[in-house]
Design brief:
The protein has 205 residues and is an alpha/beta fold. It has one domain (8-204): Uracil-DNA glycosylase-like domain (Uracil-DNA Glycosylase, subunit E, 3-Layer(aba) Sandwich), CATH 3.40.470.10. 40% of the residues lie in helices and 15% in strands. It has helices spanning 16-23, 59-64, 71-83, 115-132, 142-149, 155-158, 177-181, 186-204, and strands at 50-54, 91-94, 101-104, 107-110, 136-140, 162-164, 170-174. The strands form two sheets. A five-stranded mixed β-sheet has the order 2-1-5-7-6, sandwiched between helices. Strands 3-4 form a two-stranded antiparallel sheet. The radius of gyration is 16 Å and the shape is globular. The N and C termini lie far apart (46 Å).
Length: 205
């Protein structure tokens, strides 16, 4: 495993989101770029009041170059609609910008990023937050929680609660939509996920 110093040297500190998207593909801050098809940038209005942060691109996202376009993305779209949130109004991104996977025959199976990879990629997310300046961040899943709140934060303990980010910003934590996709009690867990998104809307109101 290579020992790159992290993404900081590749992250532009001027030029706005357009420059972030233009330079993201050059990042060599960790080894994930070696096997992934491409880096996947966040998407949405640059002045969104709400930012949703997930884990990493999946197989579909890695191939298509867009966030949340696979099964978890379709589930997220459904939940957003039920919660009264327009996807076009929010900024969607991931804590880690390259797909981490292991091969199983011809299939590429998602693998959770390591702590080192999460840390290495953090400067990209920090820059997105600095540009968008959302009034509320929705933390989706453990990887996003580790990135934004630190390793001791547990989504299961704080789900649906208003929490304060280290920089003083406001956030709310929930599960990653992929957890709902895999759920053995889909109807219940979709309802809980939608409830969390409605709680996020209430915080903005």
């Amino acid at each position: 495993m290579s020992k790159e110093p992290g993404a900081e040297k590749w992250v532009p500190h001027d030029g706005g989101m357009r420059k972030v998207r233009a330079t993201l593909g050059d990042c060599r801050g960790c080894e994930l770029w070696e096997d992934a098809e491409q880096a996947v940038a966040g998407e949405g209005p640059v002045r969104s009041r709400m930012m949703l942060v997930g884990e990493t691109p999946g197989d579909h996202e890695d191939k298509e170059g867009h966030v949340f376009v696979g099964p978890a993305g379709r589930l997220l779209d459904r939940a957003l609609d039920e919660a009264g949130i327009k996807r076009s109004d929010i900024y969607l991104t991931n804590a880690v910008k390259h797909f981490r996977f292991e091969r199983e025959g011809k299939r590429r199976i998602h693998k959770t990023p390591s702590a080192g990879q999460i840390t290495a990629c953090h400067p990209w997310l920090a820059r997105e937050l600095d540009i968008v300046k959302p009034a509320l961040v929705v933390i989706m899943g453990a990887v996003a929680a580790r990135t934004l709140m630190g390793p001791s934060f547990k989504v299961t303990q704080h789900r649906g609660e208003k929490v304060e980010l280290p920089d003083g910003g406001t956030a709310i934590a929930t599960v990653h939509p992929s957890a709902v996709v895999r759920s053995q009690d889909f109807t219940r867990d979709l309802g809980l996920f939608v409830d969390d998104l409605r709680a996020a809307v209430a915080l903005l109101d």
